[in-house]
Specification:
The protein is 67% helix and 2% strand. By secondary structure, the protein is mainly alpha-helical.
């Protein structure tokens, strides 16, 4: 199955949104991807992750088996854990070296406590906690796949909606993911699942429902409704007379209804616009977003690490607007360059990178140096022009 470049471009835009928010919140370079009230890159990241999960894993289950899909899912969860551990270890190292204020986390006694917190995924820097929520939501696929195989997708949607309503009315402590932070609650997973679980169902039924074609046909209406809702939220809740109810309807921790409605309208609209652009433009015009979107997990990890390293070793805070813009462009460029590197060298799986590197170095060592290649090449006799040839017997 060919990749849907519009999905990749939408994920790439979500990565840009995350980077611009984390490095340049409130500045001009961050405003385009945060103009829609209460919709950001994290919302898109979670929704698109569920969508791609349903798309890809249904194909694997149909071609192979449920057991095969479970094994792939398990390996994916291990990769997510390693990525989250990498981010946490970078934060621990920064804290141990005396840069704790940059991580916005509580002090630690040293490496022993830091390693314990890192391996238990409780020491998370600012901008590096999405994967913890992602792992919890991904684990729900162990239960979703057998139900989807039986065709009970409607029951899943009803259960997801019911769980979300419960989270709005009453959220016990175990609904919240926590970490060793001044504000220990990270996300309400029971609320955030409303972005992931229905997206898994849509991805699973993508071909049956012709979702992409439906979005193409109704794109003007989708965009119009999305813009209308954005204007309503902006002029009533965000900056209007209802600002006093904003925590109840738009809180991000508990993912309140304004965020749900906005995300489920804005993200399909952006996806549909990218599909239209890709029909009219050459795909390379969107290459930075598409390539970054194909490696959205790598890009997220890189930006989370950069969020700790850049203020320490490159540019100390506070930053001016020009520094903010430069850092955003450089970090996104790094994510793009890494995606291009993986594509150019065929690094489909990160654990194969050392093997591919070793094979490349070995091939370079086996190749003779330029002088040796030149000496080894056969020397052709010099060619002569017909006018230079002396014909025997002709006067």
């Amino acid at each position: 199955m060919n990749r849907d470049l519009a999905i990749d471009a939408t994920r790439g835009l979500a990565i840009w949104s995350m980077i611009s928010l984390h490095f340049a919140d409130g500045t001009l370079i961050a405003s385009p991807t945060h103009a829609y009230p209460y919709v950001d890159g994290m919302s898109a990241f979670v929704l698109l992750s569920g969508l791609v999960l349903g798309l890809v894993y249904r194909r694997w289950i149909e071609r192979h088996s449920l057991g095969y899909a479970y094994r792939r899912l398990t390996r994916r969860l291990i990769v997510l854990y390693v990525c989250q551990l990498t981010i946490a270890l970078v934060a621990v190292a920064a804290a141990v070296e005396g840069h704790r204020w940059l991580t916005l986390l509580l002090p630690i006694d040293g490496w022993s406590q830091g390693l314990e917190l890192a391996f238990t995924m409780r020491y998370l820097p600012s901008g590096g906690n999405i994967l913890l929520l992602y792992m919890v939501l991904m684990a729900s696929a162990y239960l979703l796949f057998p139900v989807l195989m039986r065709g009970w997708w409607a029951a899943i949607l009803m259960a997801s909606l019911a769980l979300y309503v419960i989270s709005v009315v009453w959220s016990p402590d175990w609904f919240y993911l926590t970490a060793y932070m001044a504000g220990p609650r990270i996300q309400n997973w029971a609320a955030w699942q409303i972005m992931f679980v229905p997206a898994v169902v849509i991805g699973w039924k993508w071909r049956d429902w012709n979702v992409a074609d439906r979005i193409d046909r109704t794109l003007p209406a989708i965009v119009a409704v999305a813009v209308g809702v954005a204007l309503f939220l902006h002029f009533t809740v965000d900056t209007g007379p209802w600002t006093h109810i904003e925590p109840a309807v738009a809180d991000k921790l508990d993912f309140r209804p304004a965020r749900v409605i906005g995300a489920w309208l804005a993200i399909p609209a952006v996806y549909g616009i990218f599909r239209a652009l890709l029909r009219w433009w050459h795909k390379d015009w969107l290459r930075p977003l598409v390539m970054t979107g194909t490696r959205s997990l790598d890009s997220y990890v890189l930006q989370a690490i950069a969020l700790v390293i850049v203020p320490i070793h490159i540019a100390h805070r506070p930053w001016g607007s020009m520094t903010n813009a430069c850092v955003v462009v450089v970090v996104f460029g790094l994510c793009w360059a890494w995606s291009e590197f993986r594509a150019a060298y065929g690094v489909d799986k990160l654990h194969r990178l050392p093997i591919i590197t070793a094979e490349h170095l070995a091939a370079m060592r086996r190749r003779p140096p330029p002088v040796a290649r030149q000496l080894a090449e056969p020397i052709d006799p010099p060619r002569t022009r017909s006018s230079d040839v002396t014909t025997v017997g002709v006067p």
